[in-house]
């Protein structure tokens, strides 16, 4: 009977969609697969979590996910961060999160979202008892965020390697993104009288000397 077949297909459709509904209880149980007795997903749990979702810890998807969870510290997810963030993503299991990977990657292509992720990365990556990023962490995070898109990144990285700077403050961090978006690769439109941090003035001077030699 066509009518019965239709009813069965509708009923089965409802069952399937019901299974896809987000469950806070299931999400919490998922959290406890990785959390320690202190109710925090720490380095060991994070490593297992990354293995289960099939992503390297250094993959930029993990940074975007941390941003979505509003995680305060690198390598840690609290229960509150997990529940709030995964609820907003409507993810209560590994498969659902994996299905969100394309969405998470797409956030990097949105200018406004990328700027927010970039700014978030500074506080996320710094030691909480420090106001600045140590230069090695800054270089690693810049490589993750700008390494594939900024033509001058490799040159800027070399500059940081040989520079006197041992930390990068928030103003410098924010301005590196602005510099990467507005200054041409040949530095022809760099305004020496602009309000750039000294770090970037010195980078431009260093690069022009290299180009001239």
Walkthrough of the structure:
- Helix 2 (24-32) crosses helix 5 (79-89) and helix 8 runs antiparallel to helix 11 (170-182).
- 64% of the residues lie in helices and 4% in strands.
- It has helices at residues 2-20, 24-32, 43-53, 60-69, 79-89, 94-98, 101-106, 111-125, 135-146, 153-162, 170-182, 198-212; strands at 40-41, 77-78, 133-134, 167-168.
- It has 213 residues and is mainly α.
- The protein is elongated and about 60 Å long.
- The protein contains 12 helices and 4 strands.
- The chain has 2 domains: 22-108, Recoverin, domain 1, CATH 1.10.238.10; 128-210, Recoverin, domain 1, CATH 1.10.238.200.
- The N and C termini lie far apart (84 Å).
Give the fraction of residues assigned to helices.
Answer: 55-70%
Which CATH architecture of the largest domain is right? Orthogonal Bundle
The profile of the biggest β sheet is: 2 strands, antiparallel
Average pLDDT reading: 91
- The CATH homology group name of the largest domain: EF-hand
What distance lies between the first and last C-alpha atoms, to the nearest angstrom? 84 Å
Q: How many structural domains? A: 2
Identify the strand order in the major beta sheet: 1-2
What's the overall geometry? elongated
Low-confidence stretches: 1-19
| Overall strand count | 4
- Total count of helical runs of at least 4 residues: 12
CATH fold field value of the largest domain: Recoverin, domain 1
Q: What is the beta-strand fraction?
A: under 5%
What is the CATH class of the largest domain? Mainly Alpha
Structural class: mainly alpha
């Amino acid at each position: 009977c066509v009518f019965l077949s239709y009813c069965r297909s509708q009923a089965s459709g409802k069952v399937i969609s019901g299974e896809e509904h987000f469950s806070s209880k299931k999400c919490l149980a998922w959290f406890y697969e990785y959390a320690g007795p202190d109710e925090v997903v720490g380095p060991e749990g994070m490593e297992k979590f990354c293995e289960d979702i099939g992503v390297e810890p250094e993959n930029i998807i993990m940074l975007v996910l941390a941003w979505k969870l509003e995680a305060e510290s690198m390598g840690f997810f609290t229960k509150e961060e997990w529940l709030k963030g995964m609820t907003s993503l409507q993810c209560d299991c590994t498969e659902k999160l994996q299905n969100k990977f394309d969405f998470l990657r797409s956030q990097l292509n949105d200018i406004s979202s990328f700027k927010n992720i970039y700014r978030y990365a500074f506080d996320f990556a710094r030691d909480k008892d420090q106001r600045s990023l140590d230069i090695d962490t800054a270089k690693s995070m810049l490589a993750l965020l700008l390494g594939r898109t900024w033509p001058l990144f490799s040159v800027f990285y070399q500059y940081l390697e040989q520079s006197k700077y041992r930390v990068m403050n928030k103003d410098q961090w924010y301005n590196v993104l602005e510099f990467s978006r507005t200054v041409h690769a040949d530095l022809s439109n760099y305004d020496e009288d602009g309000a750039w941090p000294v770090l970037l003035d010195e980078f431009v001077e260093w690069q022009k000397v290299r180009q001239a030699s």
